[in-house]
Amino acid sequence: MSHVLVTGGSGFIAGHVIVQLLDQGHTVRSTLRSLRKEGAVRDVLRAAGVTRHEALTFVEADLMQDAGWAEAVAGTDFVLHVASPVHTGKAKDEEEVIAPARDGALRVLRAARDAGVRRVVLTSAFHAVGFGHGHIDHVFTEADWSPLFGRGVDAYGRSKILAERAAWDFVATSGGPMELTTILPVAVMGPVMGDDVSGANHIVQNSLNGRMPGYPNMFVPIVDVRDVATVHVAAMTAPGAAGERFLVGTGEPAVAMKEIGAVLRSDLGAAASKVPTRTIPDVVVKATALFNDEYKSVAADLGYVKRVSNEKTRSVLGISPRPAREAILAAGRSMVARGLAD
């Protein structure tokens, strides 16, 4: 068993990663921006089934500060760098979104190299692969990179592209024997941890609570957070994972947003009474995007069904993610159970 650092321990993906690492017998250290959060994070993990709390420690470290990172990586075999700021729509200053992702990744990589860490697994995103290309007839693979200023690429997308490219450049020029693997999940759904709803789970929550008036003609490639966590843990030690990118998706075509609603209605009964049935016309979405930046990436991909290969994840890591329907239902059921769907 190994000693593993997981950055951003209060996050959605990181929480599931920590659960799986502890279940497998690893010792885990995790970073938080403030140790004042430790008690709350431990409560969330305990509710998720963690029992080996003696094997889990926390250290304070911020992606925008050097302090704490030497302590965080000291004595670790592997680093899973999951922490990254999340921002949708237009930022007043894009550097406020990009710097924590890019500079934070480099800060973690430098500390890991100096501490003799064997491999860093960095969480990137499908934004670094499948956005801004236009409606091309193409199956996206790890060989693809999103253009920085392609239509539909926002500040968050640019932060993911620039952070991952910077990480690869650093390891190639200054990383020494340290290995790097990057993980690029599509839209992540699945069982919530605690009361925080993040990522694509907001689509499910806003469907259940009635805040979404209808669905745009948009298609979303979906993957379950539990499978994303499994890929991170497997990539940590898999011999063939060093120096590789891994797209994490179901292998299915992207799911129509109206189908997300249909899945929720078919399973959740009265709890899904507010789930919309109407479709928002394309012309309305495009008009809204003129003055609402959060709609610009939606407008760019109206009617476009993205196809994403998961062949490398299956062949190298031996992981075949569960169907998107299971991720949608797990998200919905967990929100209803925790009172987060009202």
TrEMBL record:
Q: Which residues form the NAD-dependent epimerase/dehydratase domain?
A: 4-249
| InterPro entries named among the record's database cross-references | Epimerase_deHydtase, NAD(P)-bd_dom_sf, NAD(P)_dehydrat-like
Family annotation (SUPFAM superfamilies): NAD(P)-binding Rossmann-fold domains
Keyword tags: Oxidoreductase
Gene Ontology molecular function: oxidoreductase activity, acting on the CH-OH group of donors, NAD or NADP as acceptor
Q: Which Gene3D superfamilies match?
A: NAD(P)-binding Rossmann-like Domain
Q: Which domain of life is it from?
A: Bacteria
Q: Which family does it belong to?
A: Belongs to the NAD(P)-dependent epimerase/dehydratase family. Dihydroflavonol-4-reductase subfamily.
Indicate what this protein is called per its UniProt record.
Nucleoside-diphosphate-sugar epimerase
User: Which species is this UniProt entry from?
Assistant: Promicromonospora sukumoe
